[in-house]
Amino acid sequence: MTLLFGLLGRNIGYTLSPYIHNTVFKMYNIDAEYHVIDVPESELEEKLKYIFERYTGLNVTIPYKITIMKYLDELTREAEIVGAVNTVKIDNKKIGHNTDIVGIELSLKRKNIDVKGRDCLVLGAGGAARAAVYVFYKGEARRVVVCNRSRSRAEELKKHFEKYDIDVEIVDWDKRNEIARQSDIIINCTPVGTLSEESPLDTTVIDSGKVVIDMVYRPRYTRLLRDAASRGAVIVDGLTILIYQALAADKFWLGIEPSEELFNAVERVLEDLAW
Ligand SMILES: NC(=O)c1ccc[n+]([C@@H]2O[C@H](COP(=O)([O-])OP(=O)(O)OC[C@H]3O[C@@H](n4cnc5c(N)ncnc54)[C@H](OP(=O)(O)O)[C@@H]3O)[C@@H](O)[C@H]2O)c1
Hints:
Blueprint: E1 3-9, H1 17-27, E2 32-38, H2 44-54, E3 57-60, E4 74-75, H3 77-82, E5 87-90, E6 94-97, H4 100-110, E7 119-123, H5 127-138, E8 143-148, H6 151-162, E9 169-172, H7 176-182, E10 185-188, E11 211-214, H8 223-230, E12 234-236, H9 238-254, H10 260-271
Parallel strand pairs: 1-2, 1-3, 4-6, 7-8, 7-10, 8-9, 10-11, 11-12
Antiparallel strand pairs: 3-5, 5-6
Bound molecules: NADP nicotinamide-adenine-dinucleotide phosphate.
């Protein structure tokens, strides 16, 4: 029987997910299809009944990453920490998971980046920022600073992590360049740079001793990353993270390990797309 997987969201015609997962299914000879499931909010509850009966796994995106949680039986620790679900496994139970944490971890590992003892700066305070904070905490960073446009959301993030005994410092958004200068590892978890030449930081704050990571994946090499590379920093791009977080979903659904061979095959497929 053909297994069904899909991306649940609204206005998601732009997604790269079918290209990623279909490549994996093909490489592993898995009889499966991956669908884009675009559902208006007013129809979500009714459509979910149908989806849960027929599908084996879902990815979930805007605007349902939080709404979906009330329809699930269990959450993994990663989903709990991020406070949002981007992957669901449907079996006798419906389990919600979040693969952004492992997506960042595997991308750092690929470049042999160790966060232990380093001073880390997270720009943004949404779901991606929560994943980044947890990666730095788990990797035993010396200091984790969050800098967000609205102070209230940064405070909300800090409060969320207090429940897990994880300490986060908050610095105002207008001090981001100052704090970036003192940081060893910087991750952009805002959408700044998406399909634009904007950067969340001044070029001059980056030097060759730093690691700069961008969650934005369109374009793959954002202005921030190009500036960072030109100043000798080590960079990690959002497309690499996107591929690893997708491969982590395939591991969660089907037990497939996210190997280098698989990563390279998916990367080739995405590079060939005109996007
Ligand atoms: N590569 C990957 O695999 C991957 C995975 C997840 C997310 N992402 C990307 O990461 C980015 C953040 O995603 P998310 O899920 O964390 O989104 P989110 O929950 O909506 O959070 C967005 C954060 O960015 C800040 N922000 C938004 N516009 C800004 C601007 N113009 N200037 C400064 N700050 C701004 C927001 O600040 P306020 O609180 O002030 O609004 C908020 O803290 C998106 O571009 C997303 O596509 C990539």
